[in-house]
Amino acid sequence: MSGKISEFKKHMAKRAELAPEAAGCMRLVMTDNTSVYVENHKGVAQYTEKRVTLNLENAQIIIGGSALTLEWFGAGVVAVGGEVSSILFEKTAGGAAR
């Protein structure tokens, strides 16, 4: 059911010419290989110096690298710093938690 609601929100945001983030879509911005900024995540599932895993509605973002730090963390927003070597988007079957 939440998938239909999410699709409806995206559709309405598009029709109103709003940015997708306004409908709760994840937004990821990477600067060089030293900074990743993610909006509209559902929480941090894992945090180590080599890996940061963020939950999304029906997926996870896995940031890999070395000397990773959470530079800034707020409601639905996180900034990860360090030497980023990979970013993986992985769909999950029943939602964010695995």
Spatial gap, N to C terminus: 19 Å
Q: In percent terms, what proportion of residues is strand? A: over 45%
Strands ordered across the widest β-sheet = 1-2-6-5-4-3
- Kindly provide the name of the CATH class of the domain at 25-91: Mainly Beta
Mean pLDDT: 82
Instruction: Describe the main β-sheet briefly.
Output: 6 strands, antiparallel
Unreliable residue stretches: none
Reported by name, the CATH topology of the domain at 25-91 is: Immunoglobulin-like
Taken in chain order, the helices and strands follow as: HEEEEEE
Secondary-structure-derived class: mainly beta
How much helicity do the residues have? 10-25%
Query: Would you identify the CATH architecture of the domain at 25-91?
Result: Sandwich
What Rg do the Cα atoms give?
14 Å
Tell me the number of strands: 6
Number of distinct helices: 1
- Overall geometry: globular
Tell me which oligomeric state these chains represent.
Answer: single chain
What does this protein structure show overall?
The chain is 14% helix and 52% strand. By secondary structure, it is mainly beta. The protein has a domain at 25-91: Immunoglobulin-like, CATH 2.60.40. A 6-stranded antiparallel sheet has the order 1-2-6-5-4-3, with no helix packed on it. The longest helix has 14 residues, at 2-15. The two termini are 19 Å apart. The model has no long low-confidence stretch (mean pLDDT 82).
Comma- or semicolon-separated keywords:
98 residues, mainly beta, Immunoglobulin-like, 6-stranded antiparallel sheet
Short description:
The chain is mostly beta strands. The protein has one helix and six strands.
